[in-house]
Amino acid sequence: MIINRRDLALSTLAVSTLALTASGALAASADEEAVAKKVEAFRLAQIAADPKALGALCWDDLSYSHSSGKVEDKATFITNATDGKSKFLSIEYKDPTIKVVGPAAIVRFHWIAEQEMAADGKKVPTNLHILMNWQKQGDDWKLLSRAATKL
Question: Which residues constitute the signal peptide according to the record (predicted)?
């Protein structure tokens, strides 16, 4: 078998392309894992009503949209999420999907939660579809936006 320069160049290009594709897949899975950890940290911070943890996870120009249509910025979201008027008894993020696209991550899941209202002890269940957009800033991922739809 005779191998000429053209064949050698094409095979080298093919191997290089495969190597880049494989390293890109590894980077994407590492980013997906990093985002999954941030999403779980966000869920735990919501349950704990922890303003410091929520603040650290959110981008400064956060756009947080509720299923009622109400939209909050970062400061308003954190204030309302931690004001003690209600507390989460449970929050479950079911069937999450994470798709990393460059420095952005699209996260979707089915939200099932129960809150207890401080004023009267009433328990309120919620069943939502959530869309979160995360942005990579340096080595960290921050929540850029969130939207909820009632199911």
Answer: 1-27
Confidence check: pLDDT of 14 > 60 = no
- pLDDT at 88 exceeding the cut of 90: yes
pTM for the model stands at 0.81
CATH number (domain holding residue 117):
3.10.450.50
126: containing domain = 5-150
Amino acid identity at 19: A
Biggest CA–CA distance in the chain, Å, is 85
Helix (H, G, I), strand (E, B) or coil at 115: strand
* Separation CA 9–CA 24 (nearest Å): 22
Number of domains in the chain: 1
